[in-house]
Design brief:
Strand content: 5-15%
Radius of gyration: 25 Å
CATH architecture of the largest domain: Orthogonal Bundle
Shape: elongated
Strand order of the largest sheet: 4-1-6-5
Number of helices: 15
Structural class: alpha+beta
Order of helices and strands: HHHHHHHHHHHHEEEEHEEEHH
CATH superfamily of the largest domain: Hypothetical protein, domain 2
Number of strands: 7
Distance between the termini: 74 Å
CATH topology of the largest domain: Endonuclease III, domain 1
CATH class of the largest domain: Mainly Alpha
Length: 378
Amino acid sequence: MPVVSQQTVQALRRAVRSRLPPWFARRARALPWRAEPRQPYAVWISEMMLQQTRVETVIPYFRRFLARFPDPAALAAAPLQDVLKLWEGLGYYSRARHIHQTARILVRDFGGRLPADPAQLAALPGLGPYATAAIASLAFGQPLAVLDGNVMRVLARLAALDDDIGLAATKKKLQELADALLLRDKPGTVNEAWMELGALVCTPRSPRCGECPLHGTCRAAKLKTPEAFPRKKKKEKIPHKIVGAAVILNRKNQILIAQRNPEGGMLAGLWEFPGGKQAKGETMRQCIRRELQEEMGLDLEVGAHLVTVHHVYSHFTIDLHAHFARIRSGRPRHLECAGHAWVTPAEFDRYPFSKADHGIIHAIRALPQPPHLRDYFK
C-alpha cells in the first residue's frame, strides 16, 4: 500500500519543484565537498565520512584527508595504517578500510576514477543503496533518490506515516515516495535539498516548521504534531561492558601495544593496550592477567590502576580500566592479535588507536613524568 495517494504525490511533486530547489539555493551550507565543479572523488570520500557522523565532525577530517590523499591513486598507494591513522577518531573504521580497498580497485580496473554506472558503483566495497544513490546523483547526475535518516524523517512527516520507521517495509515505502518525488532533471540538487532540510529545519526535536518550504503540504505540520513522526519502536537499553587493559612496561620503560586483526571485525587493524572483557566473578587484575595469557601468551604481574575510560559505541558502552603491568614470564606471541610493538609515549603518534585507547594515552602523558618500571614495581 503506498504511503500517500497518487493525487497527493502529484501535489507534493509540484511543491517540491517550485519550492525546494530555490530554498536550497538560499540555505545550502558552504561545505568543502560542495565546491564546484563537483569532483566525484571528493563526493565519494565525503559520503563515506558522513555515514553516521555529524557534518561538523567530518569537515576537518575531509580537508586533511584530501590534502594527504588528493586522488584515488595516492590513496591506493598508501599503506592501510596511514589511512587508519588519518581516520583516527572518526570512528566506524570499516569505512576507512573500504575506501582503501576501493581506491585500489579504481586504479586497477577503472583508470583511477569512480565509475558513473550505478551498478558498478554498488559493487564497490562499502557502498550500500544510500551511498550509491548519493554518489551517482551528486557526482554524475544519475536519477537515483537517496534515503538517509534526515530524508526518512522529512518524508515520514510530510506523509504523517504511522508505520515503525525501523522496519524494512516502512523504509521500502519511504524509498518509493522518495523515488516518486525525485526531479529527474536535477536529482543531485533535490537529494541534497532533502538532506539539508532535515539537518537545518525538519530536525528531530523542535523542528522549525515556519521556515520549511513545504510547510503547506506537510500532514504532520497540519496535525501540529511533527515531533510525533517518524514513529519508532522504543530502543532497548544497550549493553554495558567492563573491560581491562594492560599498560605493560619493560626494563627500557617502553610500553607494549598490540594490533587488532586487520582482516575484519570491530576496530580492525588499529592498535591498542592489550586486554579484554571482564568475566563474571573476576577482579580487574584477574581479568587482565587472563586476557594477556590468552591473547599474547604472557604471565603478568598487574599493578596500580592508571585510569578508567568511559566510551560509547553504536551498540554498547564500555568502562575501560587500565592498569600498569609487567611481564613475569613469556614473550609476546600473536595468539589473538596481529602484531605487537614496544614503544615510548612519544611514539604513540605513529600508530592508529581508537578513541577509548586515546583516553589511556592521555592519562599516560598527563603523568608528572614518563612511566618508569621502578615507580610501579619493586
